[in-house]
Amino acid sequence: MQMLWNANAQNKKFVASYSGGKDSSLALFKAMQMGEAIGLIVMLEEQGLKSRSHGMSLDIIHAQADAIGLPIFTASATWQSYEAQFIELLTQQKKLGAEVLVTGDIDLLGHAEWNQSVCDKSQLKLCMPLWQKNRLEIIHEFIDLGFQSVIVTVNLYLGMKVEDLGRVLTTQYVEELCARGIDPCGEAGEFHTTVIDGPIFKKALSIRKGDILYHNNYAFLPLTLEHHEI
Question: Is the pTM of this model over 0.85?
Answer without folding.
Answer: yes
